[in-house]
Amino acid sequence: MEAIILAAGEGKRLRPLTNNTPKCLVNLFGKSLLQQQIETFRSCKIDDISVVTGHLNQMINFENITYFQNPNFKTTNMVETLFCAKEKLTNSVIVSYGDIIFEKNVLQKLIDSNDDISVVIDKNWKKYWEMRFDNPLNDIESLILDDGYISNIGQKVNSFDKIQGQYIGLMKFQNEGMSFLLDFYENAKKKSKDERVNILNSNLPFEKSYMTDLLQGLINAGCKIKAVPVNNGWLELDSYHDYEVYNKKYKDGTISDLISVNSD
Questions:
Q1: Does the predicted TM-score (pTM) go above 0.90?
Q2: Which domains can be identified in the chain, with CATH numbers?
Q3: Could you write out the three-class secondary structure of the chain?
Q4: Which bin fits 154, alpha (ψ -120 to 50), beta or left (φ > 0)?
Q5: What pLDDT shows up at residue 153?
Q6: For residue 48, how many other CB atoms are within 10 A of its CB?
Q7: 148-200, pLDDT tens digit by residue?
Q8: Tell me, what's the pLDDT at 263?
Q9: Cα–Cα distance measured from residue 172 to residue 99, given in angstroms and rounded to the nearest whole number
Q10: Is 239 exposed, middle or buried (0-12, 13-18, 19+ CB in 10 A)?
């Protein structure tokens, strides 16, 4: 099993922390986000780890890691960043956003899933979102389940009715799911060039598509995506406000409400 960490973004909402530092190297609880992820993967016996870099890529230099670069990181999004590491999309691959950390047990649940495509979702998201946002609906996206599989993901919502969990940016592709992913991406990209239609998200250029756009596109094309539910056990560092909230909770000892920082 392999891992690909998507760490090309600029982290504009984390400024000034990212003025001279890649987002994935921001220090949280004494270690960078990327170091924490690498340690968690290795604790689960995943040693074949690739990182796709972009912003300030020359600063990212961990031993025994394979590196790819997204040279167009300023004008693309997660989908294109992932496919910069296309040669690694074989067999069984876990894909992770570079701005999250997660407990070993969260990763292990994903590893243990036998489905062709599996996506971790947080069932206890509301408590977490209420800590981060005055109005969680301003940031939240849809996630609807059908018998344990995701039927709708990544859409804007104006009520909590269509939220049965939250996508955390951690997923696995394997077996027929991998070949489905590769074929679907190539067909979607070709269609965007030939017909100037982005079937992933009609409101965006193809290269700006979000990962949730890709996942919803796969679902629409008949692919089954298994939800792997967890109850917290992870953090996303998306803004300077997040950084302040997490450090405050770390100092007063309440970060354990969300995640075990020194989880084995």
A1: yes
A2: 2-254 (3.90.550.10)
A3: CEEEEEECCCCHHHCCCCCCCCHHHCEECCEEHHHHHHHHHHHCCCCEEEEEECCCHHHCCCCCCEEEECCCCCCCCHHHHHHCCHHHCCCCEEEEECCEEECHHHHHHHHHCCCCEEEEEECCHHHHHHHHCCCHHHCCEEEEEECCEEEEEEEECCCHHHECCEEEEEEEECCHHHHHHHHHHHHHHHHHHHHCCCCCCCCCCHHHCCHHHHHHHHHHCCCCCEEEEECCCEEECCCHHHHHHHHHHHHCCCHHHCCCCCCC
A4: left
A5: 96
A6: 15
A7: 999 999 988 888 888 999 999 999 999 999 999 999 999 999 999 999 999 99
A8: 43
A9: 17
A10: middle
Q: What gap in Å lies between CA 226 and CA 242, rounded to an integer?
A: 29
CA angle 9, 95, 8 (to 5 degrees): 15
Query: What would the two tokens of residue 48 be?
Result: 């074949």
Q: What is the sign of the dihedral through the CA atoms of 189, 157, 170 and 246?
A: positive
d(CA 28, CA 245): 11
Name the token pair of 177. 């799911």
> Which residues are within 8 A (CB) of 133 and not within 5 positions of it... i.e. 6 or more apart?
139
Whether 237 and 128 have beta carbons less than 8 Å apart is answered as no
Interatomic CA distance for residues 50 and 3, integer angstroms: 6
Residue pLDDT, tens place only, 78-116: 999 999 999 999 989 999 999 999 999 999 999 999 999
Task: Name the residue type at position 221.
Answer: A
Omega before 22 cis (within 30°)? no
125 φ/ψ angles, rounded to the nearest 5 degrees: -65, -35
Structure token digits, residue 123 = 């069932």
